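B., you asked whether I could sanity-check this one before it goes into the benchmark set. Here's the sequence:
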Amino acid sequence: MAATTVYVPRDAAALSLGAEDVAVAIAGEARARNMDVTIVRNGTRGMVWLEPLVEVALSSGRAGYGPVAASDVRSLFDADFLSGGKHPLSVGLVEEVPYFAKQQRLTFARVGVTDPISLDDYLAHDGYRGLMQAFALSPAEIVKEVTDSGLRGRGGAAFPTGIKWKTVMDEPAGQKYVTCNADEGDSGTFADRMLMEGDPFCLIEGMTIAAVAVGSTQGYIYLRCEYPHAHRALNAAIAAAYAQGYLGENIRGTGKTFHLEVRLGAGAYICGEETSMLESLEGKRGEIRPRPPLPAIKGLFGQPTIVNNVISLASVPLILQKGSAFYRDFGVGRSRGTLTIQLGGNIKRGGLIERAFGVTLREILYEYGGGSASGRPIRAVQVGGPLGAYLPESQFDTPLDYEAFASIQALVGHGGVVVFDDTVDMARMARYAMEFCAIESCGKCTPCRIGSTRGVEVMDRVIAGQNREGNLALVEELCDTMLNGSLCGLGGLTPYPVQSAMRHFPEDFTR
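And here's what the prediction gave me:
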């Protein structure tokens, strides 16, 4: 009788909830019962409230059980879970769970499905088909596919990816670089980590396609040091890609060369900004470079450089495999393809959701999230990380779309959604935005460095009830200076959460 395959995630979220103990317990119980079980350590499906989610491969699909603790394993065996037996922790076939079934998984199609560091598994699930297609095209044709797909930067800036690639391609240079900014620092975001831990070959393939397109032979993944599991997964996948000829000299006999390595950053939020990241990659202090020149013209070590986010690069293999029109058919307006929405904070069912642009916040919060974890009304939602605006209930029907959010002075950003119920004090949240900027500022420009520090002081006076009218006016002046005078988005976008809190929740500033 063939062994039964059981999947236990090794994603950081699942591990933090006891997945390692669960895997050990399943292996031990199988030995004790003399049952033949193969345990595969997959990525997470993104339904974090069900983690650790154990899946069993059946002829009808993969049956899920969760959240499983090591103490539940014996009762799972007693219930014959290896044959899909009923148990209080049973969730049925995983891909039929409503939270998952309603998604449109493109970039995350393999995450949670495959063994992340098995190249054979990756190839069996359409891996490297995009790269093989790229080898059949000219560099200009590759760039045109990416441009025509409508892919925009998923790191938050939403700059058209194809335009950035074309600039690098057209630059004459002896050496060009492809860099991935994996310094995922926004609060409430974890899509980059999930992708790197759950499908690292997808990122590697996307970077290789970028290298072929622009004529680069060297790439770097700039990873924050707080992601040790992603670091190990990436290094294992890179080693496997080298061993099978998908990286290195003469890739798969095509005559193309691309070398790739991971570099660790120390976790400075400012290094999420592309020029600060390049400074850090060069071994310097992470701080903003004035622009122009743009990194695409003069980037890493002064050479033309692609700087893209993890999700941007990981979206490329599918675009090359299925064509630009396939990807462009998802989304609305100028926001094409899918967005990886990370739902956290005071929410009942937190996790990752991949949907085409155009889904509304209300759908995300209630159809997926199930409302607040506390059971109290949701009062405010911050979208786009610590620099994103706070949105009130009256704006929950805004579609997740770059232009729609810009029209209400908000950001889609990296897709992080953090939820607050009606106990939140928005004056203190506005203060926190200023404090965050003060702590994380690289110090290069005065509006960010000094403006945020003064902002904390003024907000303290507002909260203490000291000359509120005058101090609120001063906060507005500070925000105007930071918005229009800062060198980068850290100081330039900090006014978004501050002003949105003042605009939508004025009662919290006059208590």
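One thing to flag: The mean pLDDT is 95. Otherwise nothing jumped out at me.
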